[in-house]
Amino acid sequence: MNYLIRRLAAFPLVLIGVSIVVFVAIRLVPGDAITAMLGTEAGLLTPQQRESLAVYFGIDQPWPVQYWHWLTGLFSGNLGISATYGKPVLGVILEHFPLTLELALLSMLIALAIGVPAGVFAATRNERPADLSVRVAAMIGQSTPSFVVGLVLIYILSAGFGVLPTMGAFTPLWQDPLQNLSQMILPAITLGLAFAASVTRVSRSAMLDVLSDDYVRTARAKGTPERRVIWRHALPNALVPVVTLSGIEFGYLLGGAVIVEQIYALPGLGRMVLEAIQQRDYALVQGSVLFVALNFMIVNLLVDLAYVALDPRIRLEGR
Amino acid sequence: MGMVKAVFAHPSGRIGGVIVLVYLVIALLGAFGLTPHDPLMQYRIVRLHGPSAAHWMGTDLFGRDVASRLMKGVGQSFTVAFFSVTAAALAGTVLGLTAAWYGKRWDTVLMRLMDVLLAFPAILLALLVVTIIGPGTWTSVMAIAIVYTPIFTRVVRGPALSLKARDFVDAARTFGSSRFYILTRHLLLNLVAPLTVQVTLALAWALLTEAGLSFLGLGTQPPTSSLGLMLSDSRNLMEQAPWLLAFPALAIMLSILGFNLLGDALRDILDPKTRRA
């Protein structure tokens, strides 16, 4: 259990480190915060007005004091006010998050639905033409950036079938699930394909490892049907690295779907961060980067926990 | 020489090696401006013309030669990938080696700092760097280098720790070898294998990120051509001029594929643990 305790103890430390990095990073942006907040209108301020605004936002204080205020604000859920939305940052983030979460879940489903069977298929035909073709396809999939997949899918749909993915007005899942799915399916496939390629590669090699284990040989020697050997005996053990990979990729998807959300004009978290950067909405950048990093850390922690639960050997090594 | 032979004897090493070599030639030609046309020259009468003898990959909305822009773009991508991965590998090696060698507090502080950097999804950390220094080619270099430094630090520190405890290092210390000599000759030289694999895979990832940042308008700025920008420009024209999408898309994909194949082959050859029986 030592490993788990150490892992949990490091969590708040890393989180504080992350918050310091985000805090300092935003303050390294050239130019002062008032000008950044008000844009060209900042030129209209008198020095006195500028000073009182600085006092109002607390940016006249030294950095450590500002950091302390920001940190204590975080615990009460106060991440500041977004300049572009004119609303509390946390509210803006939570408005955009469900879409990104849904997108990440859908693409993970697609990736697992394609990747695991493909990996098992290839592993059971090791070094035969079927295995080679799966491996080549997976290698190509892994080397194709999501924006290339996205653009090519849009091209095939529009040039081949004369349909364009619906963009713009977005329907949330709880309003009209069917309409929502029709808008989410292409982005989910786009993200899911590259992800499926890595799942395929990992399941194939994990499956190959497991298939050469003694217990599998024993099962075969007992006369267990091959299907049962593969799906009941071998696969559950081969899934351990797949779980790890899926968790890590899922964590990336929660913050890394920027490009796909941009291509399909989906109002998710990634696109919101990008716009906040372009609009120089620092409170929003600061809050959302911290939010995404926190998610990423939580997902990674859960992956570690799942790993320990699935493979007791790790628990012992941690002692 | 033995290494090159081994790579070319490996099936994916052969394909990856050839792709990477071809790209290196294209990148060098592009970077030094040895392209069929001036990539910025606007041939107004042949705007949006498909591939032809004069313009192998057609022309874009402004009548610029796509093949020349693509060569220049490959040069640009490779420049960014090369400098960022070199910087990350150097920084990561120095940090990883010193963390392993000096241990104690320096190791703890350094590795926790790396944990913090690794707590950010890569693209987000890159976006944060772009926010601070503003978009541009060198920003991409810096962003990718910062993202990859913690990974190199970990790759170096682990094996360096176990090497440090080996007898030959103790022996070298007893002989009175200098710290620098031991670090470079005994530790670093033994780390060349994992580093080579990591560098190759990092190059693939750097190419991907550079294209992504440029695609979002945060990397290389127009009118300089880059593969990501070309793809982004093709978005509204893909039905009229599919070649604007096809060639840059293929170029990005093949370049990443080349480094991935080469990286896989190198890992098979250099890492005895994953080497197939």
Describe the structure.
- Chain B: Its main location: membrane.
- Chain B: It is found in: Cell membrane.
- Chain B: It comes from Mesorhizobium retamae.
- Chain B: Belongs to the binding-protein-dependent transport system permease family.
- Chain B: The chain crosses the membrane at residues 12-34, 78-101, 113-133, 139-156, 187-208, 243-266.
- The complex is a heterodimer of chains A (319) and B (277).
- Chain A has 319 residues and is an all-alpha fold.
- Chain A has helices at residues 2-27, 33-38, 47-57, 63-75, 89-123, 129-143, 146-161, 177-211, 214-221, 226-256, 258-263, 269-278, 282-310, 312-317.
- In chain A, helix 8 (177-211) packs across helix 10.
- The longest helix of chain A is centred in the N-terminal third of the chain and has 35 residues, at 89-123.
- Chain A is globular.
- The model of chain A has no long low-confidence stretch (mean pLDDT 84).
- By secondary structure, chain B is mostly helical.
- Chain B is built from eleven helices and no strands.
- Chain B has helices at 2-9, 11-31, 66-102, 104-118, 122-133, 137-164, 167-174, 179-187, 192-215, 227-234, 243-270.
- Chain B is elongated.
- The mean pLDDT of chain B is 87.
- Chain A binds chain B through residues 10, 13-15, 17-18, 20-22, 25-26, 28-29, 139-140, 142-145, 147-148, 151-152, 154-155, 158-159, 251-252, 254-256, 258-259, 262-263, 273-274, 277, 285, 289, 292-293, 296-297, 300, and chain B through 12, 112-113, 115-117, 119-124, 127-128, 130-132, 204, 208, 211-212, 215-216, 218, 228, 231, 234-235, 238-239, 242, 245, 249, 252-254, 256-257, 260-261, 264.
